[in-house]
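Researcher: Please translate sequence to C-alpha cells.
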Amino acid sequence: MTPTAGSVIALDVGGTRIKGVVVDDGEPVESEQWPTRAERGPDAVLDTVLRCADDLRARAVRRGAPPRAAGIAVPGLVDESSGTAVLAANLGWRDLPVRSWAEEHLDLPVAFGHDVRAGGLAESRLGAGRGCDAFAFVPVGTGIAAALVLGGRAFAGSRGFAGELGHLVVRPGGEPCVCGNHGCVETLASASAIARRYRRATGDATASAEDVRSRAESGDRVARRVWTEAVEALADGLAALTVLLDLERLVIGGGLVLAGEAYLAPLRTALAERLPFRPAPELVAAELGHRAGSLGAALLAQGLLAGGGR
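Model: Translation complete:
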C-alpha cells in the first residue's frame, strides 16, 4: 500500500459482516471481522460500526501507532461528498450522516466511500487492476455493482450512483428487481438469483449458486439452464459497459470467481460473442478477495493524510 506516516484504521460495512484493518506505514498489520446483525435495526448497526472502529483504534494504540485517520466503506447509494449513506437497504440506513457520526465519535478525520468503489480503488493499486488505466471491478455476490476506475480514480458520477450494473435492464419484462424495474442483470446473474431461481425450479431449498454451477457441469438440465442464463445476462451487462467506456480490463470478484476458469471461461466467450466489431477487454479474477473493500477504505484514509485533509 502507499506508505504514509502513522497508521490508519478502516472498515468495510456489509450486510452480513463488517471487515476491518489496521494499516501502519502503508502495511496492513491487523485485521478482524464482526457480524453486522442488521436485523437489530439501523441504529444498532451504526453503534456496532463505531464499536468496531474503537476496537481497531485500540489495536493500533497497543502497537504504538495511534491512528491518524479512519476510512469507512458502505454499500448501497452513497453521497461521498457529504459522507451520507443515502440508501443502504441491507443495513436499514437512509440519509444517515455516517462520516459526521464517526468523526465525532473517534475524534479523527474520516474518509467515507462506496464499498465497491473502494474495492475498485484497492484492486487498481494493489490487485488485478494494476497498470490498467480503464477497467471495471465487478463483484458478483448478493447483488452486482461495478466500480469504474478511469485514470486511476473510481468514477462516482454526478450523484454518486455510477456503476449500478446490477440494475441495468437486460431482459425487459423479466423478473421484478428490488430497484423497481424488471429483468435487471441482478435478477439473473447475482449469486443469490442463481440459487433462488434453481430452488424455485427444483424445490431444493438448500442449493447455493456454487451448487448450481457444479450440477450444471454434471449434466443437471435445470442447473445448466439457470447457469447459462446467468452468464449470458452478466455478459450483456459487461458488453454494455465495454461499448460505452472502451474498457481495457474487467476484474470480476465475488465468491463465484473461486471456481476459476469454470466461471470465467464461459463468461469470456459470451462477452466476445457480444462484441463482434471489436476486441473484448481482458477478463480476469480479482486478487484481493474479501479484503478489497477494507483495503480500499484504508487507501481513502491515507489519502486524507497525504492531502492534509478531506
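Researcher: Any highlights?
Model: The chain has two domains: 7-119+290-307, 130-287.
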